[in-house]
């Protein structure tokens, strides 16, 4: 008995591939622009060694999404919004430092800070320096974030 093997129609494979690619990498006017942003986090003047920096918009707005940055062992981070390391949208955010589920490192409790990210004249944010104070050390209503370069970002305690 002779077996008959039917070849898989190529046009179905091409249609499936096109459909899969159409859903990948959303871009365009629906997605707000982001600017690359990286820097270093300190807690009480010493580099943080683990954690996740989380930026949450002060006022919920689909045109201003939040951003996250995984803290490296030397305290550095790179912000991500839509893809790894793509940056953050401009705007005002509440910044918190939380444990990173992927590294499971302990993170001391810190006071959240409010910060504003703005591009400079060259369209960049520059390196950020985020200085948190531990919650046990910070005074009531105390703040703790300092962002550089001057004029591109600012920080103050939440609610002020």
Structure report:
It is built from one helix and nine strands. The protein has one helix spanning 10-22, and strands at 38-43, 46-47, 52-57, 67-70, 76-78, 91-98, 113-117, 127-132, 153-156. A hairpin with a 2-residue loop joins strand 1 and strand 2. The longest helix has 13 residues, at 10-22.
Summarize the structure.
With 160 residues, the protein is mainly β. The protein has one helix at 10-22; strands at 38-43, 46-47, 52-57, 67-70, 76-78, 91-98, 113-117, 127-132, 153-156. 8% of the residues lie in helices and 28% in strands.
Total E-strand runs = 9
Describe the largest sheet. 5 strands, antiparallel
- How far apart are the first and last residues' alpha carbons, in Å? 84 Å
Order of helices and strands: HEEEEEEEEE
Topology:
Blueprint: H1 10-22, E1 38-43, E2 46-47, E3 52-57, E4 67-70, E5 76-78, E6 91-98, E7 113-117, E8 127-132, E9 153-156
Parallel strand pairs: 1-8
Antiparallel strand pairs: 1-2, 1-5, 3-4, 3-6, 6-7, 7-9
Q: Main attributes?
A:
single chain; about 160 residues; mainly beta; 5-stranded antiparallel β-sheet; 4-stranded mixed β-sheet; 9 strands; about 30% strand; disordered C terminus
């Amino acid at each position: 008995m002779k077996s008959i093997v039917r070849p898989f129609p190529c046009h179905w494979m091409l249609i499936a591939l096109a459909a899969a690619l159409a859903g990948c990498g959303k871009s365009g006017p629906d997605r707000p622009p982001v600017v690359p942003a990286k820097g270093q986090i300190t807690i009480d003047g010493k580099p943080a060694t683990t954690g996740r920096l989380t930026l949450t918009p002060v006022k919920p707005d689909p045109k201003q999404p939040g951003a996250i940055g995984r803290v490296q062992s030397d305290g550095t981070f790179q912000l991500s919004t839509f893809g790894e390391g793509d940056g953050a949208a401009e705007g005002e955010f509440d910044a918190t430092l939380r444990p990173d589920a992927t590294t499971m490192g302990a993170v001391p409790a810190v006071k959240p800070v409010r910060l504003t990210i703005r591009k400079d004249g060259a369209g960049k944010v520059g390196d950020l320096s985020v200085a948190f104070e531990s919650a046990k050390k910070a005074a009531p209503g105390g703040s703790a974030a300092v962002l550089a370069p001057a004029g591109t970002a600012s920080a103050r305690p939440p609610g002020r």
